[in-house]
Automatic annotation (TrEMBL), chains A, B, C, D:
Coiled-coil annotated spans: none
Family, as annotated: Belongs to the chorismate synthase family.
Taxonomic lineage: Bacteria, Pseudomonadati, Pseudomonadota, Betaproteobacteria, Burkholderiales
Protein name, entry field: Chorismate synthase
Gene Ontology molecular function: chorismate synthase activity
Co-factor binding comment: Reduced FMN (FMNH(2)).
Native source species: Pseudoduganella danionis
Length: 365, 365, 365, 365
């Protein structure tokens, strides 16, 4: 209820602060019998971890995960799986200067007013570092969904500030520091240059991320409030710095006519996917397609007006190690959140309707 | 868990189908001592009800609400408040022709595959008619929030298809059939003409809706998953036909720099509101600002390709009474969902931190 | 969260007060495809309803149930099932004299202090009348469990005050006004005489009720907090007037040795059932056996000391229509609560482990 | 939902197995601003830990707790508090002989059938060792309740097998190895002798435990399903080996008349406490009084009939280190569960009704 648990049947409860002794999570509801070791989880954490290029925060964290429970002889037992990640590179001093004032665009102000007490070290609980345990938990969900339905998750950056990245192919994603689905070397160079300039200026920039899930059973989602797309929106808007979410045609739907938007069906399947794989809150079996808008990092070196705890005017500059574009590392996080939503709905559907029929064979989705 | 309850502490459980005997809801968690009669609820239902202009469905429903419980001598008792609305204008025959096939863009296909059984009368449970009980429940939340903090909710249509409606003033909203915050008679006439053309063509169109909440205490929202903005996104994406949600600057954040996006603070308050009233998932005390994209109605007269339950190709046309733009009646619904989210968070905050301090007096928000 | 919903996956949200316009519930999570009409529900309500003998309250209620939603063409659709029961015999005047003071042993005092407002008509929300909707909801659960696993529920009164009722056979239960599993006419006559004396004295008496569930799959229940027996204890202690709950050997376990208590196993099944069908919080496949202690009705004619709202001493007598032993009508209610617990756990188990295997064939349970 | 989280607003999610690397929990919902260090928690863990006398398991565990998050500069921040306890004395070999068969009275059988996989080391997740994290979490709840309302918790063993322990005074509890509220040296010696004989025989025995909470505000509890007593019954029956729960007069209520059972009120307070501090599911402000029945330990050296996984008959003896009476260490656990229930309800009440008024001054409770 205090908002540190994600999911109802595959529930992930996270804990920890950016510069505390450790971060981690407890996953409750993982079905028994899934082969699982740290080696299933670590690669996903590595995709998200800091320090992988000069365009992300230079904090040095190995993000080594330890499974504390829920696995016996390499197989899940149906009991809670606890994941522990020790923080290695804590530098409380970097943040001393902002303990008494509020960074514009940052959670400093609201935490202070909500709780009357605030851990200022690295943003404390509000740090994007807290997405690591979720990425770890989602690695387990991804494995189960893959094994059960062949589901796969893919994500890419489709826009960096005003640089649009036209989609070419998923295979390009791991080959550049931006998760761009593009093999256009000139474009990548332009992105690198833009990031270098920002870093030099002590500023930051927004980004747009696209994620999809493929091979989803028909029928996941609840019809009224726990619609699949509502839960996806909740999951995505809950990622640090996200300010907008679209499913399928998204805001483009505003200018579409019904005769254009509604995806027609043939015996071979749907024609088009304006729905983004969801109709009436329930999966159609098509690809689930999601886009999110990520705001620019709020911790920047550029001095800005603010106030201190007593309401007096101050100028704030932030000197710690930060991602000049939090969107860069957001791709694996957005995939993770999508996986957690689908996992939860897969179990919920099984509760209500029994073991899932993937789909009717004559509909090529 | 099956997705028919909205909210955790102020919980609204709805029931009913478009053409069943009745629709309604049970509201659990309303604080005791709130003066309440049907007269507090009916006006909100009237703003949303069908048949108020030629641009919305012509179904005739008085949407008369009856309070069945939870109120004694005109005051809430802290026990569940049940609201009942009898369906008056049921016409099952209008839908007979689509019971065996799937309308493109409609929940027909997914309900059928999920449940193996489907109530085709007026879309059954997937009908937008099911937003009526929520609007009723939200009237109670609005009254409590207004009384407690002076909170007010406002909404308007900001785009109808490709017709953008520049914001002039909230006072115009009730004076046109579109909830447009504009007194520009020529613009309204253009919207009317566009709707008339669509109706003639048997087609439909999308829309964009903006809603805001004013006079919100600082500190509402939970930091990680039940972020205030995440719950708003969940609530909005859960409204029928919504495909996109933005908070504050929304997708515009993608092209903003950190030095531009982060709202600076002065002793007199924030400068700007790119945050949309939420930082780190917690309310800042500024206006909460939300925009949503609504797809065109999927039930249209234009014939389209589809399949029947056996997978055979069919042409589908829909002849019932439908809103040619579901966005028109979405404004009070979006306000209602926003009110329910804030009500729930207000109670949650009170659980965790005690009675709410509205905000520090020297910050003019 | 405000405690008016029972169950997580098969959720029953009730509403209403003893003398309000109606009582009822919304059942969310019923699997689709279950044949269902009012005729499946009414007989269970009739077993519980008032006025069936001179030993229970003489309030005249037909307790006629109306299904408002969730059923189409006689089959559940997977959407919420709302049940409505109109109150017919409201007599607010019977309770006027106690509106300003607190009956000893009654919820009057605590409701008043909790909410600061109280509906005194017939005990308002605290009336045992509110068990009617749950009995209705449980009729649906019973039908599903019966169809799925052959599960049956049975209950009887095993003690009325100091009159112990030795178990003879379940077939006797409907043949006497006490739900006694006894064909001993002399014993029944003694119970009738005891009740007549109490009624004459304006006093009331406690009772003990036993309920069992037969043909339960192995494996229902969660290991740590949502143990099957913990949820049963929660359900039973939540019934009006219950002060004690036992599973299996219950308080007799205190004096047992481990070598005696632990039910041994053979290839033909368990020897004995001290466990009451639950080990480690999970069903063994044996009968689930439960006993509950029910306190005497608190509304009695005998004058007693109390205070009024201002803390001044008063004498309180209650003249309304009451059950002189609330235990008499508790048998169908206890069965109902047990059915709701098992239904919820059956769905939960299905979510986590897939479709339930009833049990290994070589274990005769 | 998978039953590893206790509480809704003060939520404790536990993880770990008896012989895994670590056990622990995440506490979500602790109000901010509570001074907290490990020194507040360790003493409660020490009361419960193994090896404190020859009458409990000889497993050597320091049960040293580490706070991983949620505390900054010695004060809770409102974010999740993770507690970690490393397992130090793991002996997997002790349990090798029972990995393939089922101990009578133990969770072996049900875990195996539920999950199809089972961690047999020390009972895995079903071990009473898993009560340690809850005791740790409850130390925090106790501190908050004490600070807020002056609430205190007390517990004692009132019966060991057939040896009844008459209550003398709470001050005796820490001065004997049984948590007996008795200074009767002869009685304690008799209990010691009984335990010595059991240990020699390789058998075990049941016990009865009483716990109370004092200085509780009036008004905690929800009226229908989340009644305070229902939640207490759930919490208590969920403790390992508990088979019965009573509130107030408990099973004694069965033979009481209404004129005797209902606690009368005077301007100075209640006369008597048959209610056990709860009326209509809501606290009266009197002491909350609870009794529980604990079955004898199921792991005993005495050989018994059982079956193996293939259904073949086997004889089972258990040679590991076990408590010959699990009831002995149950007292601090029962106190802990009671504290967690009251904490949760205190927050829930605050959500619904605002900051709690402890009680009206003219009622001496």
């Amino acid at each position: 209820m205090s908002g540190n648990t994600f999911g109802k049947l595959f529930s992930v409860t996270t804990f920890g602060e950016s510069h505390g002794p450790a971060i981690g999570c407890v996953i409750d509801g993982c079905p028994p019998g899934l082969p699982l070791t740290e080696a299933d989880i670590q690669p996903e954490l590595d995709r998200r971890k800091p320090g992988t290029s000069r365009h992300v925060t230079q904090r040095q964290e190995s993000d080594t995960v330890e499974i504390l429970s829920g696995v016996y002889q390499g197989v899940t037992t149906g009991t809670p799986i606890a994941l522990l990640i020790r923080n290695e590179d804590q530098r409380s001093k970097d943040y001393g200067n902002i303990a008494e004032s509020f960074r514009p665009g940052h959670a400093d102000y609201t935490y202070w007013h909500k709780y009357g007490v605030r851990d200022p070290r690295g943003g404390g609980r509000s740090s994007a570092r807290l997405t690591a345990p979720v990425v770890g938990a989602a690695a387990i969900a991804k494995k189960w969904l893959q094994q059960q339905y062949g589901t796969v998750f893919k994500g890419c950056m489709s826009q960096l500030g005003d640089i649009v990245v036209p989609f070419q192919d998923w295979s390009h994603v791991p080959n550049n520091p931006f998760f761009a689905a593009s093999g256009d070397a000139e474009l990548i160079a332009r992105m690198e240059a833009a990031m270098d300039a920002l870093r030099k200026d002590g500023d930051s920039i927004g980004a747009k991320i696209d994620v999809i899930a493929q091979n989803i059973p028909v029928g996941l989602g609840q019809p009224i409030y726990d619609k699949l797309d509502a839960d996806i929106a909740y999951a995505m808007m809950g990622i640090n710095a996200v300010k907008g979410v679209e499913i399928g045609a998204g805001f483009q739907s505003v200018v579409q006519k019904g005769s254009e938007h509604g995806d027609q069906l043939t015996p071979q399947g749907f024609i088009g996917n304006n729905a983004g794989g969801v109709l009436g809150g329930i999966s159609t079996g098509q690809d689930i397609t999601v886009s999110i808008a990520i705001k620019p990092t709020s911790s920047i070196r550029t001095p800005r007006q603010s106030i201190d705890k007593d309401g007096h005017p101050v100028m704030v500059e932030t000197f710690g190690r930060h991602d000049p574009c939090v969107g860069i590392r957001a791709t694996p996080i957005a995939e993770a959140m999508l996986a957690l939503v689908l996992m939860d709905h897969a179990l919920m559907h099984r509760a209500q309707c029994g073991d899932v029929q993937v789909h009717t064979p004559n509909i090529a989705l």
